[in-house]
């Protein structure tokens, strides 16, 4: 079901390496409104762990980490 | 290419701009290739000494040379600043009003500091990433009698990513030498989920932090500094108190790159990872800190990129094909403690493979300003 949530903002960071995708996600977070859903696409497997850790520490909501066809999608909701 | 002479124009008189110009001058015939470099920096500063100068380990006078002196003969040094690039018409506008044309343009304009992105930064945080700031920090540390020192970087990317931890290790030695280590807490803050960008190096740095009783806070992206409460606040909701704050400011590429339509708001040019040319332009390149390549922003990177690009341009301007690639190679020596250092070799695909701390590596680091000024910067190494 979480897989069906339509993000308000998609950040395509495929092809960039750590810390690129995490920094792109943080940049999108800063520009987003409370309640916005942000998805980050990354081909760097390290993003799964790093992004989830950042979302948890910053008190936001991790909606899901999805294996797509050749990349990962990390989706979060800005709650603070 | 008027009169059959190729005009190479280099923007930026920092390490990247001077190394590529000097190397290319050594490899090309003056009758066939003209080289001009645009910049307005009177003194060329060896930035890696910024980790030594605040701790009284080096005299800053040994870390600077007149810029005009370090540019090799046969290169036209234009003391001005670029304000606009028109790649379609191959023209560069300068602040002084001149417009230069080129056959080949190399952008090597580095970073700028963006302290205003952090409320409370200006006037309250110290750093060592330029010479005046390194000298100011030296004076602050001389007055320091104990308390809490917070070291970190506000955001990513920055020049020379190892420098914050190198400074931290040397600061720890400095405080012990002065007999005030037991009265001082050291806290290190870092934006990522570890204490350094490269995972296996980070593991080792973290081990040394534990060994030296240095506290660290990861996933700490600096949002603001409160000078009244003497606190650093993170985007993630964490707060760290300080008595002395050493915080590397946010870095960005030059505004005129963005305004010329060659980069997004970060100011860093999107160049081919292996060929260093901008998109589909075969006459426009960027090297050093000015690119958005996924490798360290460091003089060592600029040095390796210059080796590739100077060879390529020397071949191509003499009518030959050059089919080598730049693969992200970087080698740099980083300090790990009292008289020890280690040298990291890595590329786009290979992380640093070995960890050998040694006194010999420290000697390499200690003499690197001499090596830099006499050989590396001159293009002969």
Structural commentary:
The complex is a heterodimer of chains A (80) and B (381). Chain A is built from two helices and four strands. With 80 residues, chain A is an alpha+beta fold. Chain A has one domain: TusA-like domain (Translation Initiation Factor IF3, 2-Layer Sandwich). Chain A has a four-stranded mixed β-sheet, with helices on one face. In chain A, strand 1 (9-12), helix 1 and strand 2 (37-42) form a beta-alpha-beta unit. The longest helix of chain A has 12 residues, at 20-31. The model of chain A has no long low-confidence stretch (mean pLDDT 89). The two termini of chain B are 29 Å apart. A five-stranded parallel β-sheet of chain B has the order 5-2-1-9-19, with helices on one face. A four-stranded parallel β-sheet of chain B has the order 13-12-11-17, with helices on one face. Chain B has 381 residues and is an alpha/beta fold. Chain B has helices at residues 15-27, 67-70, 131-143, 163-177, 199-211, 255-259, 299-317, 359-366, 368-376, and strands spanning 6-11, 33-39, 43-45, 64-66, 75-79, 82-86, 91-94, 99-101, 104-107, 111-113, 147-153, 184-189, 215-217, 222-226, 231-234, 239-241, 244-248, 251-253, 284-286, 330-337, 340-346. Chain B is 26% helix and 25% strand. Chain B folds into two domains: 2-110 and 254-324, FAD/NAD(P)-binding domain (3-Layer(bba) Sandwich); 115-250, FAD/NAD(P)-binding domain. In chain B, a hairpin with a 2-residue loop joins strand 20 and strand 21 (340-346). In chain B, helix 1 (15-27) packs parallel to helix 7. The A-B interface holds A 16-20, 22-23, 26, 30, 46, 49-50, 53-54, 57-59, 80 and B 155-156, 191-193, 197, 199, 219, 221, 235-238, 294.
Outline the fold blueprint.
The complex is a heterodimer of chains A (80) and B (381).
Chain A: E1 9-12, H1 20-31, E2 37-42, H2 46-57, E3 61-67, E4 72-77
Parallel strand pairs in A: 1-2
Antiparallel strand pairs in A: 2-4, 3-4
Chain B: E1 6-11, H1 15-27, E2 33-39, E3 43-45, E4 64-66, H2 67-70, E5 75-79, E6 82-86, E7 91-94, E8 99-101, E9 104-107, E10 111-113, H3 131-143, E11 147-153, H4 163-177, E12 184-189, H5 199-211, E13 215-217, E14 222-226, E15 231-234, E16 239-241, E17 244-248, E18 251-253, H6 255-259, E19 284-286, H7 299-317, E20 330-337, E21 340-346, H8 359-366, H9 368-376
Parallel strand pairs in B: 1-2, 1-9, 2-5, 9-19, 11-12, 11-17, 12-13
Antiparallel strand pairs in B: 3-4, 6-7, 7-8, 10-18, 14-15, 15-16, 20-21
Helix pairs in contact in B: 1-7
